[in-house]
Amino acid sequence: MALPQRATLDDVARLAGVSRKTASRVYSEPEKVAAATREQVLAAARRLRFRPNTLARTLRRGGATSTVGLLIGEMSNPFYHAVAAGIEHELSASGLTLVMGSSDDTEEGEERVADALLSQRVAALLMIPSAADQSYLDGERQLGTPVIAVDRPARNLLADAVLLQNRAGARQAAEALLNAGHRRIAYLASRADIHTQHERLAGYREAMATAGLGDAAALEHLSDDDAEDTVARAALDTAEPPSAVVAGNNRMSVAVLRAARELETRPALVGFDDFDTADVLGISVISHDPLEMGRRAAALAVERIARPTTVPEVIELPTRLVLRGSESSTGLAF
Amino acid sequence: MALPQRATLDDVARLAGVSRKTASRVYSEPEKVAAATREQVLAAARRLRFRPNTLARTLRRGGATSTVGLLIGEMSNPFYHAVAAGIEHELSASGLTLVMGSSDDTEEGEERVADALLSQRVAALLMIPSAADQSYLDGERQLGTPVIAVDRPARNLLADAVLLQNRAGARQAAEALLNAGHRRIAYLASRADIHTQHERLAGYREAMATAGLGDAAALEHLSDDDAEDTVARAALDTAEPPSAVVAGNNRMSVAVLRAARELETRPALVGFDDFDTADVLGISVISHDPLEMGRRAAALAVERIARPTTVPEVIELPTRLVLRGSESSTGLAF
DNA sequence: CTGAAAGCGCTTACAG
DNA sequence: CTGAAAGCGCTTACAG
Question: Chain B partners of A255 at a C-beta cutoff of 8 Å?
Fold first, then answer.
């Protein structure tokens, strides 16, 4: 069966008995069209099931769509989902639509997906950089598309960034454990090669050095891939396990709990990132607000779209130590 | 400062010394252009930082973009994030881009955002219906845009759907508790007005009736809004608390744990939906695969884009009972 | 407040 | 394999 033809503005104008331009005005500057004419046009549009074609409008207007691209490396971490939710929320408040792409965490994927988003002429590009270098975006930036890095800074690219105070947060985590009397405090991280983990590790080291425990390298358990469970088990299943652990992110915290349960070793724990059941489990964390991070990044995008020529800005969002008991030496609450 | 002008295909053709059409072919059917000519064009494109304008291409080609819209009610539930991740994954494998919109769970919002997505001429619309009625999409469906409902069926609209076996899953949950010897088994749900909760409640009732416990209305604790913690506390903080609970979704499971901890009442528990720390906590659940749900929905969209005229299909994905200890009468493992 | 012409950047027929 | 003309659906100047 043949599908009915999609109506165009011309069809609407013809049915309403006005010029094409008048029909167009009903959608772009309705207040400039006489009320009676407007009603006539809208009635015709309803009858024909007309919906203005945003593509054509944008093309004619010179390229600036009302979409904003978000490029994420890995879709599996709940932290990034929350960031995306915050972004979506803020954008929709400004009448913008979110277009998402994920690079599956490969260098080649990041550039390919960025290219696809930019070909759709997104008004701005938000990204969680995961490739080693973002200089491939420099041409686009010069053409006026704002680029905003989220959670990690872009490399070799002049771009705005919204980050966390990773170093201060991790320092706080270690200090909380030191204050509770611990000395053998381990730091556990997967994806240790990325910026956030660099910073957090540095914060942990600062706290340890300040406490006169500078030579803690044996207590650092780092992996460049996603093997949280392996790292956690390796750290805890030793002759002399640490009495306390700083977990580098939410997934590592859960991995520590899992390993602790299996091994019946119960180290004190402060984890970076809050998570769903941390309160139920009595786990102390370095908390921050991923929704807020997304909101701030989107707000920055909205501002850059309006005023493209400003100097790049770096926003660092604070973290907060939430004590729930697991920082003490009495072991976990579960 | 003036921004440099964006290069068009014309500029590239001129610099490469070929016709506009030849330059176009390099991007649409590269195998039909002589290798030497192709290299010449690509070199010119690189020099000019040219990126083909997808909008213009789509407009000329007759409307079908390579984007797919996803309309979500509430962005806050991790379940939907996982569904979205599955969708994104499957779409990108087919060279499609995901455009997301959230309705903030209002009827008016759903229609407004659907309209925005359709104005961008998405090739298909995936949605988690939250309004009471989706008949407003019928015109668009007749124009050939596939609509696929995810997690809940669309109402008053002929659309494909990818759902869970909610009823069977909830029945299994109640049966697991019955098998463990429980009789006073409560059912707790927030958002009790939506389709999934209807079905799950029905499954619970079936199991109870079969066990000769048909009159369990006093054990049903339902709320139409999001007040999980309130429902959980009300259900457990009574003179005669239930000995076991079926939680209607992941958030209710966590709310039960929280309430149980505060009240030191420790009912057995089987929750619908798995969640991050359920294994650590030893919580038995009705598990299913939100990523898979997203993947299937996206695959259906891809198929419908290719062959639009097929009859709507309803896919029901199975659930799986995962026993971790909390179904027994000995109380929670934490 | 309304209208006829031109054009946004690309691709589709139609020729060669 | 390459080219000159027309047009996708809309809006922007330019007139009235």
Answer: none
